[in-house]
TrEMBL record, chains A, B:
<dbReference type="InterPro" id="IPR036663">
    <property type="entry name" value="Fumarylacetoacetase_C_sf"/>
</dbReference>
<feature type="active site" description="Proton acceptor">
    <location>
        <position position="146"/>
    </location>
</feature>
<dbReference type="GO" id="GO:0046872">
    <property type="term" value="F:metal ion binding"/>
</dbReference>
<dbReference type="Pfam" id="PF01557">
    <property type="entry name" value="FAA_hydrolase"/>
</dbReference>
<dbReference type="GO" id="GO:0006572">
    <property type="term" value="P:L-tyrosine catabolic process"/>
</dbReference>
<dbReference type="GO" id="GO:0006559">
    <property type="term" value="P:L-phenylalanine catabolic process"/>
</dbReference>
<protein>
    <recommendedName>
        <fullName>Fumarylacetoacetase</fullName>
        <ecNumber>3.7.1.2</ecNumber>
    </recommendedName>
</protein>
<feature type="binding site">
    <location>
        <position position="370"/>
    </location>
    <ligand>
        <name>substrate</name>
    </ligand>
</feature>
<dbReference type="GO" id="GO:1902000">
    <property type="term" value="P:homogentisate catabolic process"/>
</dbReference>
<dbReference type="InterPro" id="IPR011234">
    <property type="entry name" value="Fumarylacetoacetase-like_C"/>
</dbReference>
<feature type="binding site">
    <location>
        <position position="139"/>
    </location>
    <ligand>
        <name>Ca(2+)</name>
    </ligand>
</feature>
<dbReference type="GO" id="GO:0004334">
    <property type="term" value="F:fumarylacetoacetase activity"/>
</dbReference>
<dbReference type="Pfam" id="PF09298">
    <property type="entry name" value="FAA_hydrolase_N"/>
</dbReference>
<dbReference type="InterPro" id="IPR036462">
    <property type="entry name" value="Fumarylacetoacetase_N_sf"/>
</dbReference>
<feature type="domain" description="Fumarylacetoacetase-like C-terminal">
    <location>
        <begin position="143"/>
        <end position="435"/>
    </location>
</feature>
<dbReference type="InterPro" id="IPR015377">
    <property type="entry name" value="Fumarylacetoacetase_N"/>
</dbReference>
<comment type="similarity">
    <text>Belongs to the FAH family.</text>
</comment>
Amino acid sequence: MPPQLRSFIEVDPESPFPIQNLPYGIFSPKSQSSDEGDNSQCRVGVALGTKVVDLAVLAEAGIFDGAFDAVAAFRSPTLNAFMSLGPAAWRAARAALQAALSADGPRSLAGNASLLRACVRERSDVALHLPADIGDYTDFFSCREHATACGTMFRGAANALNPNWLCLPVAYHGRASSVVLSGAAVRRPNGQRARDPKDPSQGPVFGPSTKLDYELEVAFFVGTGTEMGEVLSIEQARDHVFGCVLLNDWSARDVQTWEYVPLGPFLSKSFCSSISPWVVPMAALEPFAAPTSGGSVQDPPPLAYLHDARYGSYDCVLEVAIQPAGAPAPPVTVSRSNMACLHWTMAQQLAHHTSGGCPLRPGDLMGSGTISAATGLPAPAAGSGGGAGGGGGGRDAVGERGTRAFLLDGDTVVLRGYCQGDGYRVGFGDCVGTVLPALDRGEFESDGVQ
Amino acid sequence: MPPQLRSFIEVDPESPFPIQNLPYGIFSPKSQSSDEGDNSQCRVGVALGTKVVDLAVLAEAGIFDGAFDAVAAFRSPTLNAFMSLGPAAWRAARAALQAALSADGPRSLAGNASLLRACVRERSDVALHLPADIGDYTDFFSCREHATACGTMFRGAANALNPNWLCLPVAYHGRASSVVLSGAAVRRPNGQRARDPKDPSQGPVFGPSTKLDYELEVAFFVGTGTEMGEVLSIEQARDHVFGCVLLNDWSARDVQTWEYVPLGPFLSKSFCSSISPWVVPMAALEPFAAPTSGGSVQDPPPLAYLHDARYGSYDCVLEVAIQPAGAPAPPVTVSRSNMACLHWTMAQQLAHHTSGGCPLRPGDLMGSGTISAATGLPAPAAGSGGGAGGGGGGRDAVGERGTRAFLLDGDTVVLRGYCQGDGYRVGFGDCVGTVLPALDRGEFESDGVQ
Ligand SMILES: [Ca+2]
Ligand SMILES: [Ca+2]
Ligand SMILES: [Mg+2]
Ligand SMILES: [Mg+2]
Ligand code: NI
């Protein structure tokens, strides 16, 4: 897409949502009396600067030219129907939208005041909703810098990576029901943790997690699904990736350390996982394709079924910022990383995921795993704050509240990510959550040791 | 329910489905031309002997007396709507059904030939479907005998149980998209495994799993859901359990061993998980409540939030039978176990699951983990065949096909379970699957070592 493409709707050069992006989301008009949207009015929109463009209205006006059933796809309370249509429909929709929203060209809507009145809304006049019905949520662990930092803490630098890590994209199943939209409050979980992590024989205590952490991730949505037993090659897999969001996989490190042997994380990561509301299409990221932090050839090469001839990632800056309760805006940036720090590609992740026959459904969510930059650097490059999954010390950078590496009640954590183009940015928008104090479980709490 | 309760529909004493059971399922009439059901005609039924009783028809006939919106609940392609109504509606439905299907009593339909013609079908005339839209599937690891057998293999008898095992019901998130109905074929998965499991530095190979195993489990469906952040006490949790099915959590042990460090099982258990079609209500199991194999008091006692004042399980015989390809029926029983061998109750599992705020949805599936009997016994008491999760040797008992502990292509595995009453059985019916050979991945296979 030529960078000089420009909409008749004015977009700030630092906005994440120029016409080069056009990310999809689900919105509903706010009612006059409240800030809640009318859920029965949910439909698909794209973000453009500070506006939201109603695709149900544009579909009914015929701008998609019958390339697919646009009314059914866009007058829908989730993106699942559109996701299921596959890349030809996604390309047709994007081309039609860019032509319609462009300042120039024969298909520009610039002069169609009545249609624009019907389809363009201020972002502040709508409520946003989860973009998809998420059938299953898988979380990978695909950042080598992060895996190395974690492994070094547990096993020392010589054995940092487990033997399987460089051979397959390690992953686990997350909890689909606990995925929430950016902005939802994040209640600090109660849970079991070891009384003394160094001596598990002392048994557990129950109470509010004392090691609440964030995880900076990018997640993608599966577009077209697969049948049980259907296997995707790497090239096929690429066509099943619909688009990306930011993901904060909030984690209770003390709960995680105690519970995860031998079946993996469970309650430590299923109390809340926040995603940003706008799904950035892969076509919008494509101009920012770049070698990974490990280079443009995967080293070591994986087995043949995972060989990706188009190995690489995207040059997309990722940031974590924290604003403690009562602190002045803006939030303080505590970490900077990049999507290029992913050792496994999305095509590899999906080819692996289906290699044994596991079926995918439109709307499945696939997290990257925490993305940290440059191995061994301190907090300013870590995608999580500390403890079992973290590079350490993220929360410290805020400064005002002492020396704890983990999140405090009232902290607001903001994830941001964008690709810098020539005079514009293709970004995700913010993924935000504020930590609320744990529920009081009264007599059940036994954490007097903390 | 008095055991002498009896239906006007004749039920064999060894049938799993007497009037004391009345398990719920989803069925559709088979069309005249094929064995497939008409999916657009899916609705709720109960099993009674060899019949299926159509609850949509009974709802329209008014037998549920307006206790809940029975037409909406039962003219539905899944049980989710009925599950969401909660225990008062479940009790009302069951009481109305037992009264209507009873041989005697004022509400018996015995004399209502025209209604019976409309609502009673032969099991062979209908197709069965997944009973619920499963939002999330969690698999626990709650059988102490099984956990001890697994742990002994890995760490020796002295350290068999990990430090957390007796303190919380260990679990992981499974893959909801790969849950299938009994009868579906089970394709042997391809996958990565260590070339030499004793020397991971030799790296992986890719090809058909050589250690395909079954797992004998009982799973329950969540009825009413919970909001994010809502915490259930043990007593509240009990009311969220709708009913139970059998679950065969097919597992590729070689894939599991290689992939599961450190985030738990992934593709080794997400290629297929089979459940029996009829959901046995908790009220039907209640007469068979019994102490666990560890006694009627939990030893050691867990933390207060997990203290279950009604600690116990059910006296429900569980069996695994295998019929190799070409072998004569019936399948050979290779293992016998019992639901009493569960150290953690369903109420404890749900109270723990929600303790950090994780939301539940109607239709969520919760597996027990493999249920093996008596610690240290050989295969005849093991709920899985061998390897990483098994007690060992299950497949050997079949005899005809040599000495491998794991499943061969063509093997049909049958899980059965029932509570023996006085002259009747409350059972699950069979959970069946036949192993198909792996897909040929041609050039991608690298398992020449086997
Ligand atoms: Ca994560
Ligand atoms: Ca299992
Ligand atoms: Mg799901
Ligand atoms: Mg799920
Ligand atoms: Ni769903």
